[in-house]
Design a protein that fits this description.
alpha+beta, two-stranded antiparallel sheet, elongated, transmembrane helix, membrane, transmembrane
């Protein structure tokens, strides 16, 4: 082995001797390489961080690449609505004049048209038959009332109609009610049993349901909103009790 190494050394020649300058140059080159690697790494990390932040802002709702400023929320104040002196749907318009003395209730002298009739009538008032298919009604009004069309509907008329109470298995029930007749508060209309709605706060009308037989389903419904009669409920019940079906 020693001979072989000697032969190789002789062929290659002796290694050049290293000087201090050579060692210093190698050390400087190594330091510069380390600094380049650190700078490159820092730059790459900053670029990656900036990319992540940019993606995050882009994903926030309500923001765009063109405008990343926070949006100021605005509120809308509802426009005040005009108020009215009466609820929606309430009848409006003038009322006919109320008499100083109530219209007298007198015996009927002429026949009613149709199948409904009353033995007592408002003095001087006339009757008119109204037909709507099979539905028959009688309207009473004052022929001397001038220009009645100017007044609110139903405020110058009495109307009569015929109805049959419905049987739902727990007693006869008049229309516009949900309770059986036997459970409703009764009043007497002449000699007949009746149910009165009283004066409506909505349109001022009163409806009286007059039972024609003590146990039967038939009733006559008297609707009174006539301001120009000046009647109280006692007079209305007396009139309604005189009405029947021919």
């Amino acid at each position: 082995m020693t001979d072989l190494k000697s032969l190789l050394d002789d062929a290659a020649g002796q290694e050049p001797a290293l000087t201090d300058a050579d060692l210093t140059g190698d050390l400087d080159r190594g330091r510069r390489a380390v600094r380049r690697r650190r700078i490159t790494g820092i730059g790459a990390g900053a670029a990656a961080t900036a990319a992540v932040i940019g993606v995050g802002w882009a994903l926030l709702p309500g923001l765009s690449a063109a405008n990343t400023q926070p949006q100021v929320a605005t509120t809308t104040t509802p426009t005040p609505q005009p108020t009215t002196d009466h609820p929606p749907g309430r009848p409006t318009g003038p009322l006919p004049p109320k008499p100083a003395v109530p219209v007298e209730l007198v015996a009927r002298t002429t026949q009613f048209p149709g199948r409904l009739t009353c033995d007592l009538v408002p003095k001087g008032w006339t009757t008119k038959l109204l037909l709507r298919g099979d539905d028959e009604q009688v309207e009473l009004s004052d022929p001397n009332l001038s220009n009645p069309e100017q007044y609110r509907e139903y405020t110058y008329q009495i109307r009569l109609r015929w109805a049959t109470m419905r049987d739902e298995g727990h007693g006869l029930i008049p229309d516009k009610y949900s309770e059986p007749w036997s459970e409703l508060p009764h009043v007497m209309a002449g000699t007949k049993e009746a149910v009165s709605t009283g004066k409506s706060a909505y349109d001022g009308r009163t409806e009286v349901f007059v039972r024609q037989e003590k146990t039967g389903p038939r009733v006559i419904v008297v609707t009174d909103g006539a301001v120009n009669l000046g009647w109280d409920e006692k007079t209305l019940l007396k009139f309604a009790g005189s009405c029947s079906h021919k």
